[in-house]
Automatic annotation (TrEMBL):
Residues 209-403 form the Pseudouridine synthase RsuA/RluA-like domain. Transmembrane segments: none annotated. This is Probable RIB2-DRAP deaminase. One of its GO terms (biological process) is enzyme-directed rRNA pseudouridine synthesis. One of its GO terms (molecular function) is pseudouridine synthase activity. It comes from Claviceps purpurea (strain 20.1). PANTHER family: MITOCHONDRIAL RNA PSEUDOURIDINE SYNTHASE (PTHR21600), PSEUDOURIDYLATE SYNTHASE RPUSD2 (PTHR21600:SF40). It comes from the Eukaryota. The keyword RNA-binding applies.
């Protein structure tokens, strides 16, 4: 078995021995059996023992050359054992002869396979390496794992630590070990990645510097949380070979689909990134929202505040950051048409297992009963397809503005959920009189995990808990390697958000890229409706018109102040 260490550098003073790694198999040839073998507990233990034996042998050889007597060796060993025992009693690491290595299996090509219209990853062992964060200092190893890494129960971590499979600075430590500044924490675990859609990553344009892709819904951009190989960047590397290095220029949420830019070099990524920051790039989204969205140009310029930075939760607030989004209705489909379209989406995206199962009830609109309990009105007023032009780029801006206008995205698990926001869903609730921030945070926490360290992590945690509630747990089935509970596959309607990045264009007209409308935005069978979207000019003019009105209002106030000053 060959191993390689992870990308994280070794902690200061830590010497990690890495056995040689054979060259990867070419992408076109069958994977090397050596590379496709995954770590087992016995292999990890064997590697630790071999490393320690080699280290001890090297020191003994050096002592013999230096003419050390047997008595001096015994004295030296006794002193060192006494020192190590004192250090362990103080919660410190053992000496150099106790250094362990934390190997990572070399996996190429990634262990993908396809089944039931899903891209799956065979379970594999992986070593996580992370340096001590400031908030971890002075806490025990058990406290850190229980509060920060919530995908496994506390009992699993305690058992793993007692078995010696969690390391600090390359040394096996127990659950009561205290984390200090600069410590490198390593944990080798058996990973089960959730499946994602088997829909391929579409290529809209490619040249020597840039790839413009059509990202499928439900696939995260970067490896994060429970996802590694089932991410856009890893899938692209698997398709193009291990030497390909993608550099994403814009980020879409995991559930959002549509146009993304992936540069082939740092320079190309920086160039487009600077254009986006300078707001010389226009972007348009399309959303499917609840109810009959008003006709004409609608511009929402309500400020957005992060009411909980730790949870990444946002809402309209007068003291928030300025935000502006232009909207224009593309089509409205009344309730009868909405039911037919939703049924079509469910029938075409669910697996055969879901179709045959009668355990999960669905209403006439194709939404699960669990979904409708939180949003019972979501499919009773029909739905609209709406074009969205965000002028600013606040987190969840389009979703928050649509919620404020009373037309949240129809399948939004956060901003269209009455269990979180109450009956009015935050409609025109800029001052929080209908639903307080504290109530929203508490309710949302109940849906997901109680709290997490970072906004993106919390959002994914909440979605994962929501998906697990929708998907039935396989009765009595657990992984034979790590005892992780196994879940049935969630349907595609539970792995997507009806928000699509439709178009990007240069403000000066140098370039423009557009994707096709997603299936959920097309007219239902037997109904007339648009299948394409026109240019952005209408939306741009709507924003410009509001800016002109604001400029005139400011000018009028200034003139009035000048007149009063003259008097």
């Amino acid at each position: 078995m060959a191993f390689t260490t992870s990308d994280a550098p070794a902690a200061p003073g830590l010497k990690i021995t890495t056995p040689a790694l054979p060259p990867p198999s070419p992408p076109s040839s069958p994977p090397s059996p050596l590379l496709m073998d995954f770590l087992t507990a016995d292999e990890i233990a064997k590697t630790k023992e071999e490393s320690r034996a080699a280290s001890n042998k090297g020191r003994n050889d050096q002592r013999e050359k230096a003419g050390e007597t047997d008595d001096s060796k015994k004295t030296h060993k006794t002193k060192k054992q006494t020192k190590n025992k004192k250090q362990m009693n103080k919660g410190q690491d053992c000496g150099a002869d106790e250094v362990r290595i934390t190997p990572v299996a070399a996996i190429w090509p990634p262990p993908y396979y396809f089944e039931d219209n899903l891209r799956r990853v065979r379970p594999y062992h992986w070593t996580y390496n992370t340096y001590c964060k400031e908030r971890w200092r002075g806490k025990t190893l058990m406290e850190v794992f229980v509060s920060e890494f919530r995908d496994r129960p506390a009992e699993y971590y305690r058992m793993t630590m007692e078995k010696g499979d969690i390391f600090v600075n390359g040394k096996s430590v127990g659950p009561d070990h205290v984390i200090q500044n600069g410590d490198l924490v390593s944990h080798t675990m058996h990973r089960h990645e959730p499946p994602v859609t088997a829909e391929p990553i579409g290529i809209i344009h490619e040249d020597n510097d840039m790839i413009v892709i059509n990202k499928p819904s439900g696939v995260p951009v970067h490896p994060a949380g429970r996802y590694k190989f089932n991410s856009v960047l890893e899938i692209m590397m698997a398709e193009r070979g291990p030497l390909f290095r993608p550099y994403p220029c814009n980020r879409l949420d995991r559930l959002t689909s549509g146009i993304m830019f992936v540069a082939k070099s740092v320079q190309a990524a920086d160039k487009l990134g600077n254009q986006i920051k300078a707001r010389t790039v226009r972007k348009e989204y399309v959303a499917r929202v609840v109810g009959e969205f008003p006709e004409g140009d609608v511009v929402c310029d309500q400020p957005i505040l992060s009411i909980s930075p730790k949870l990444g939760l946002n809402r309209v607030r007068a003291n928030g950051k300025s935000a502006r989004t232009a909207f224009k209705r593309l089509a409205y489909y009344p309730p009868t048409a909405a039911a037919a379209a939703a049924d079509d989406v469910h029938d075409s995206s669910g697996s055969e297992k879901e179709k045959d199962s009668g355990d999960k009830g669905h209403n006439d609109n194709g939404n699960s009963d669990e979904d409708v309990k939180g949003r019972p009105w979501a499919t009773k007023r029909g739905y609209s397809i709406v074009r969205c032009l965000p002028v600013t780029g606040r987190t969840h801006q389009i979703r928050v503005h649509l919620q404020y206008l009373g037309h949240p995205i129809q399948n939004d698990p956060i901003y269209a959920n009455q269990r979180v926001w109450g009956v009015d869903l935050g409609h025109h609730d800029a001052d929080g009189t209908l639903t307080s921030d504290e109530d929203v945070i508490t309710r949302l926490s109940r849906m997901g995990k109680e709290e997490a360290a970072e906004a993106v992590v919390y959002y994914d945690d909440m979605i994962e808990r929501y998906e697990k509630q929708c998907a039935e747990k396989m009765t009595g089935e657990t992984c034979s390697v790590c005892d992780t509970p196994l879940y049935s596959d969630p349907g595609m309607h539970e792995l997507s958000l009806w928000l699509h990045s439709l178009r990007y264009e240069d403000a000066d007209g140098a370039w423009a890229y557009e994707s096709e409308l997603p299936r959920w935005a097309l007219p239902p069978e037997g109904m007339a409706g648009p299948t394409r979207v026109g240019g952005m000019e209408e939306l741009v003019q709507a924003v410009k018109g509001m800016e002109d009105v604001e400029a005139q209002a400011v000018e009028g106030v200034q003139q009035e102040e000048e007149v009063q000053a003259a008097q």
